[in-house]
Records
---
Amino acid sequence: MSIRREDVLHVARLAELEVAEGDLPRLVEQLGRIVQFVAQLNEVPASERAPAFLAGPAAVRLRPDEVAPDRLIHGIDRFAPEFPHGFFAVPKLGAMDGGE
Amino acid sequence: MSGVAFIAEAVGRGKTTAATVAREVGARLERAAPLNATLDWSQAVLNREAARVDALRQGGGALPLAGVPIALKDNIVTTDQPTTCASRILEGYVSPFDATVVHRLRAAGAIIAAKTNLDEFAMGSSTEHSAWGRVLHPLDPSRVPGGSSGGSAALVAAGVVPAALGSETGGSVRQPASFCGIVGVKPTYGRVSRYGLVAFGSSLDQISVFGQTVDDAARVLAVISGADRFDATSATEPPPALEPARRDLTGLTFGMPREYFPADLDGSVRAALDHTAHSIQQLGGSIKEVSLPHTRYAVPTYYIVAPAEAAANLARFDGVRYGPRHVGPEGDVRALYRATRGKGFGAEVQRRILIGTYVLSSGYYDAYYRKAQQVRALLAEDFRKVFAGGVDYLLTPTTPTPAFKAGAKTADPVAMYLADIFTCSINLAALPALSLPVGRAEGLPIGAQLVGPMFSEGPMLAVAGALEAALDAKREVR
């Protein structure tokens, strides 16, 4: 199928990516060619129930739930501007514009 | 200064010091500056690394990499240098922890020499997609060194360091190793911990090794391999034993898959591979033509799976948690995400995020991502059958051509993707493989690829050692 300008804009919104107006024609053309290229897979007969590939072991290994030291070179307090009483202080939900 | 074993022996026995090695490496890094292969290094960091190694040595422990300078692709995190993934979106970012491979290298006495340039977020096959400019091929500056680990490859090929780490998702170490005339080893998926490797395609990514020689790469791989409690995908197999190079290949069968030798294969690559096959026979090995029938679907499968996983992994770079932030015109948080990501990611990364988001989006998931994972299972089954049918290793070209000219493929993403045609199916099947230099055409190196069954790195490196000794990698093939 072909890729339209609206498709690129829709996918860019889903991907939280700002796309400059001037880049749109190039992206429509390049994405169209890439999608056409990967659509070759439609030639491969595979039923809906054909197994999908799994990288790594088939079953996740369970391991003892032990507290072990991490590798951070500084305390977690340094990850946030405010860390009162052992908690991360963050803006109130909906208050990103600076309001309370 | 020479190979890994030579330096480790000299520093380990006190014939020289890590400080002396560090000064020499600094001088070589200075001279190699025109290659644009590094994103961060300093003599101060080198000296600090060397002082740590010299103190370790006086502590008396066995150090298999004593004083060995090793460069790291800049998508492997370090606490004392920035990690940017060659992206503006991570400019100035310094990790609060070291990658497991960095821990293991340091514990073995290695000197972390430099952070190297790459295609942004490891997306590319030429190291032209870096926010800090392209890397030059050490033998011909008009050409690319391959990618995405082109900076690490160029430093090893230029003799600045004997070994370096890169990462592979679809061939990003074997392909530049082939272009630059050095050894590149992609281990089995899970062989090396990925804790501290910035994720691109999580079902494919694997930290991989460059060496000037097979022995250099083998020694580094032995140190960085093994289970890691910080990486649930790391395998429990013990690290590959360091095996001496085989003297002959008697009793071994090498499969040459016909799909990897198409009619339009570059003549010099074909000649170099014919010569390699002849050497295998002279060493007592046998050659058998085999078929991997789904090979032609490997690149399209890869370019669904890898971008889909990349779109998910790169969602974390939003201007809130890492790197510089661009506030959008509307001043809300989604505008902040969009502005930061739109300005922070380069063109190739944006393309892959868009493709990945598209193939995962509602209505398309089954047609693309699910189908690709099914075809991937068929590709893996092709390899399984060949190895079950009496083939010990596969012999293929690593790349369809020697190093191409800079700019030759940047306008056409699909042409660039096809540079990975002989490497990416191995990542899709989670197998180990290596690229070995086997000849040159008009001065440009050509690599042969060996592929083995899961966790066969030790014996495969011993086989590569035999070929390395038998072949003159600088010989012109026509």
Note: Chain A is about 25% helix and 0% strand.
---
Amino acid sequence: MTLGEQLAQYLATGLVVGGVYALIALGFVIVYRVTRIINFAQGEMVMLGALVMVTLVGRGLTVPPAFALTVVAVAALGALLERAAIHPLRGAPALTVLILTIGASIALRGGALILWGTDPFALAPFSTGPPVRLFGAVVVRQGFWVLAVAAAVFAALWYFFQRTYAGTAVRACAVNPRAARLMGIRVHRVSLLAFALAAALGATAGAVIAPITYATYDMGLMLGLKGFVAAVLGGLVSPPGAIAGGFLLGVVESFAAGLVSSGYKDAVAFVILIAICLAQVAGWLPWRVAEEG
Amino acid sequence: MGARARWCLLAAAAAAVAVVPLLLESRYVVSTLVFIGFNALAALGLSLVMGFAGQVSLGQAAFFAIGAYVSGVLSASWGWNPWASLAVAVAAGAATAYAVGLPIFRLSGLLLAMATLGFGIIVYYVLVNWSSVTGGPSGLTGIPPLAVGGFRFDTDARMLWLTWGLLLLALGLAGNLVDSRIGRALRAVHGSEAAAQAAGIDTTRLKLGVFSLAGAVTALAGALYAHYLTFINPSPFGFTYSVELVVMVVLGGVASLWGAVLGAAAVVALVEGLRALLPLVTVSHGAAEYEIVVFGLILIAFMIAAPAGLSGIARRRA
Amino acid sequence: MRRIVTLALAALLALAWSPGLAPAQEAYKVGAIFSITGPGSSLGIPERDTALLLEAQINAKGGVRGPDGKMHPLKIVIYDDASDETKAVLAAKKLIDEDRVTAIVGTTLSGTSLAIVDTVQKAEVPMVSCAAAIKIVEPAAERKWVFKTPQSDHLIVGVLADYLKAKGLTRVGWLNVDYAFGQLGWIEFEKAAQKLGLQVVANEKFGQKDVDMTPQLTRVKAANPQAVVIWSIPPSASIATKNYADLGIKAPLFHSHGVGNKRFIELAGAAANGVIFPVGKLLVAEQLPDGDPQKGVLLAYARDFEAKYGPRNTFGGHAWDAVQLVVKAMEKAGTDRAKVRAAIETTRNFVGITGVFDFSPTDHNGLDRRAVTMVQIVDGQWKLAK
């Protein structure tokens, strides 16, 4: 195996994992832009997406209806979370809401543990066949599904934000909630929509990655944290930034594991997180990470 | 509460602590109280940060780990006197907090929470990977107990005296701090940072001071834990413990020092209570799944309904 | 309603006065701490199931015949430590002082076992751990009260290293999971490789929560090894196995005893075929030669366990050995903790699930390499490896 082939392999692996991080990061950004809340439970939506998908396929559903049902169910849960826990606390300090979402994430993880137990579950890839060779790198077929689904979601979101009324309302709230309210947009509905949308994105990520990583009740925390780092990397308020941040983080992690030290691979994301915070303090960052709260 | 009343209360508590282990026969109960003491010390540090600087640290377990590992490695591997290693551990906790806080305390709010979270996770990976010093994931054995002359703190009752003695001392000193000029300044920071700054308070320095103090107290708790168990490994010091500490502070009430003790006691009692109760209702004998659901719901419920925590509820009743 | 109550009371009285019924003897109480939840639960759950199974089986036979010649019912008090050190310590103290058990079985994980060693040593309560790390029982002269049933890592790794050497696979690539299990495996393998002249051409780590080990395996592949060893448990062990097959690495793949359960094969699917790993004999009990001293015990346990709880695994076997050791010691020594300890230490030729145990004052594990065999996965089934 030549060095070139190795590098191609690291890049390919990083892009697939990065696609998942990007989907999760988008969820953080959409909620943060509208509500200024960091939704710690975002990672648990990924976990739920994976477990619900595995369960539905296990019940005999084919992939397309199982996928649709999973995304809708988890989105509904995201909406429920917003109504039951976030909405009553509107106007509370950001830290209070952050702790609340931490509570929600713990409760969701515990609930999944009671329902599904601790065993990991396998899910068959969406299409079968041997892995594909690309410039010396090996990519499993599910990897292409991850990238294709991510691309489709990005396109759909772009259309939603740019071309539909609801999407424009969300953008308006992100820019100036008070002005948006004066224009007749119901801000609390937009918050509800943002949480549902973020949950749907998380569920999508979970459902497409389950064939690669299996589904377990405790997979959400680490994926959620990585997605958050990706979102911060992209500025926390910019959807294209989140997508770029997701892919960048996936690739950097993969290269770190391949070239530097596999033991510290998981620490890389958090070193980046702190580095960004410090760079922001020092004023070295060409973009700003939103800071109020 | 005036200073005299507070010290009277602490003296009464100290008397109770001195007598309690003599009355209790079961090491289990005494040991539970010892663990409550460790958690209360750690949570006390965090409650200073949360309640009096208005910041949250999501990586507080890292300071507990630093205390445990510095004292453990120095005394077990390097053969230091445990008291000397304990003192260095506390200093290391304060110094690390200062070094970490120096750059990030110029951030505010959420980013600060996230930076501490990142810090906590990195410390965990260092403990796991730096195995030549830390013993790696399988841990470090042979940590000696603390001793004064021939009097070794190696029983549950003696450890209870030591831990709660230090806890009450810390509570007293923290109480003094809160009542002092600095404490008033801190509360101003919590209320409105801009107003505090306008009044000429150097808010960054104050917050940094509180964070360092919290690092020291939490590291003290970690060091005591290491000498009590005589064995440490990284797994108890992960992100979950950081969250548990936040739960304790929130449950007890962020703005009250005794809240930290109350919260630590409530969490440990809940965990042990569930363990005693669950085998009666389920065959699995497993408790952790219900435990984490309950923790999660407590956090949500308290954030919505009783943000002042248990101590806040008590005050409202009184 | 009142009539039913009267009838029930009458029945109870009749039972109490019936002459044949001997007064129940004082129960023999054994404590158990398992990781029923948390990261160790895939080990702790079969251990709990096995303890419950044994308790029921022994009591169905009337209980334990103590040194007083009377039958005592067996009571196993089980607590979950949630794979957490602090909870394990509290559970141990609760068992010792509140439940007043004679001995403790468990814990499941090395970390929790090491955390309670100090407690049981000071309280002078015998403990039989179901965790693997050799540090738990050594030095045996100091760890007077502590025993363990799983094979130590050096036995398992030694058998694997000998196998590699015998097959002429001397250029080895190594990967391990970054917690205690993987670290201890690596420490032993490094020693064994040096002794046998095996060359480790790659040494990588991954996390139990990692979603993809392709980068690490790419490094291993680039080093061009003759054999690759992965030291982990599912799900990460299964993901790595799938990545290995996807990368098309041709060198034979070896694993640890950590993949000795059906879940590994379910998760890795076809990629699991061909995997060879060192493990206790339980998995291949049916294929053992009839002269094997363990065969009968293994078949009986596998049958009873699978009838009630699903596919067998070696972890439950560790608990079987631990409970049986304590019970056998209590047959000799009753509830005297010091005598029970001495009885365990003098146990010889005890045919268990993990192996044939010979304890001594210097060996609190009591096993040798005969307790390990090489198993290969063929068409999703365990086969004795040639």
Note: The radius of gyration of chain B is 19 Å.
